[in-house]
TrEMBL record:
Name this protein carries in UniProt: mannan endo-1,4-beta-mannosidase
Keywords associated with the record: Glycosidase, Hydrolase, Membrane, Transmembrane, Transmembrane helix
Source organism superkingdom: Eukaryota
Class of this enzyme: hydrolase
Similarity field: Belongs to the glycosyl hydrolase 5 (cellulase A) family.
E.C. code: 3.2.1.78
Catalytic activity: Random hydrolysis of (1->4)-beta-D-mannosidic linkages in mannans, galactomannans and glucomannans
Source organism per UniProt: Urochloa decumbens
The Glycoside hydrolase family domain, residue ranges: 57-398
InterPro entries (UniProt xref): GH, Glyco_hydro_5, MAN-like
GO molecular function: mannan endo-1,4-beta-mannosidase activity
Membrane spanning stretches: 6-23
Length: 455
């Protein structure tokens, strides 16, 4: 009887927590894509909510530019990879809301985050084709909360690294089930059984119906784009052929299910075997010969890929060269400008710097270095956007609200604790927002953040 009573208490507590989040903290009456009026009770779906979400506009690509509501779209963005994970438990959900509020105050309009967690704590996919509904509901909440703050999402679908499972977990699953061809992590890209595992996950995610809005993810414009994998590498095939075939196959599969959303690969931007010599020379330091199996231009040219992505970490990439601050800054400018040039002249697609950061642990680090480096990146992107070029956006890695020290890395920024960087990020948001000529909600929201002050 004591155990049964405890179950009753826990059940009531869980319901209260769920109602608090869905009806209190995530106020469904004020979603911003566009504003919705949601008469809900618990998890009951509103047909008005579904209709309003479907009526909102999707971000689209026209040549080398992003468009929204018929006007060029210049997002300023950031990374908070942990959103789904932190939305699972009631004790940590407030972090999601606080991050979106802080971002909206800075005029940030797109967040890149993980839509995967394979076999780890709070796993979305607990085993091949088996999903935890509790975690899926957390991702549902992230979509709603993003929409409420006028933020769109780039959702990454897998990890090359082991964090949150990654391709290592898929290989382990296949090996444990006795169907794996190899114990190599790169078998993720060529093992038929693993490719089938991944396709099951893709279909399940893309067709997921949000329990709060009743809208399938593939129909939700809150999502700006899908990213096939965070920093894909296939070191066992430096020719790039294995990774290229995987990208082509998975991009086509995603588009066969979801033709509304943009799609990117998630590459870091390393030039590969098919690139001309002058482009190979842009690769950082000892990485010039790029044996990671990626090939930026070749990968991005795939027809089903809508925009190219690059990352930028001068501290790590130039570590063995013992580069000075000025040498790192020179590299940063060349890296970003070179890839935007590719978007303009070679790809005819937008180029987004979806991760960039400067480590506070680098030798000789000074907080002012971040301001200088980040401003250099922002300036190149802005100049491209101002002339209608392929440079679409730059996403700082990573932002977090106060009290998330356990998620910090060498690059983490709490905006409220770094006033000069806060001003720099907001300034970029404002000047990009002013490039939009339309009168839509996105433009008004961006300009409203600017009008609220510069700090």
């Amino acid at each position: 009887m004591g155990g049964l009573a405890l179950y009753h208490v826990l059940g009531v507590a869980s319901c209260v927590a769920l109602l608090y989040f869905t009806l209190g903290e995530v106020d469904l009456r004020h979603i911003s894509l566009p504003s919705l009026s949601l008469p809900v009770s618990g998890d009951l779906v509103s047909s008005r909510a579904a209709a309003a979400v479907r009526a909102a506009s999707f971000v689209e690509r026209r040549g080398h530019q992003l468009f929204l509501d018929g006007e060029p779209f210049y997002p300023n963005g950031w990374n908070s990879y942990w959103l789904m994970d932190q939305a699972v438990e009631s004790r940590s959900r407030d972090r999601v809301s606080r991050m979106f509020r802080a971002a909206a105050e800075m005029g940030l309009t797109v967040c890149r985050s993980w839509a995967f967690n394979d076999g780890a704590y709070n796993a979305l996919q607990v085993s091949p084709g088996h999903f935890d509904e509790r975690v899926f509901k957390a991702l549902d909440r992230v979509l709603v909360e993003a929409g409420r703050h006028g933020v769109r999402l780039i959702l990454s679908l897998a990890n090359n690294l082991e964090a949150y499972g990654g391709k290592t977990q898929y290989v382990r699953w296949a090996w444990e089930e006795g169907v794996g061809l190899s114990a190599s992590n790169d078998s993720f890209f060529f093992d038929p059984a693993i490719r089938d595992y991944f396709k099951v996950y893709l279909k399940t995610l893309l067709t997921r119906k949000n329990h709060l809005t009743g809208v399938e993810y593939r129909d939700d414009p809150t999502i700006m784009a899908w990213e096939l994998m965070n920093e894909p590498r296939c070191t066992t095939d430096p020719s790039g052929d294995t990774l290229q075939r995987w990208i082509e196959e998975m991009a086509a599969y995603v588009k066969s299910i979801d033709k509304k959303h943009l799609l990117t690969v998630g590459t870091e931007g390393f030039y590969g075997p098919t690139s001309p010599q002058h482009k190979l020379e842009v690769n950082p330091g000892t990485w010039k010969d790029n044996n990671y199996g990626s090939d930026f231009i070749r990968n991005a040219k795939i027809p089903d890929i809508d925009f190219a992505s690059i990352h930028l970490y001068p501290d790590t990439w130039l570590l063995k060269q013992h580069a000075t601050v000025n040498e790192k800054l020179k590299f940063v400018k060349q890296w970003v400008a070179s890839h935007i040039e590719d978007g303009d002249k070679e790809l005819n697609k937008p180029v987004l710097c979806t991760e960039f950061g400067l480590s506070h642990r680098a030798k000789g680090y000074n907080p002012a270095h971040r301001d200088v480096f980040y401003k250099a990146i922002y300036d190149i992107v802005y100049r491209s956007a101002a002339r209608g070029g392929a440079g679409a956006a730059a996403f700082v890695w990573q932002l977090a609200p106060e009290g998330m020290e356990e998620f910090h890395d060498d690059y983490s920024v709490v905006p409220s604790e770094h006033p000069s960087l806060h001003r720099l990020i907001k300034k970029q948001s404002c000047r990009l927002a002013k490039l939009r000529r339309g009168e839509g909600e996105e433009t008004k929201r961006g300009l409203s953040a600017c009008a609220a002050g510069s700090s």
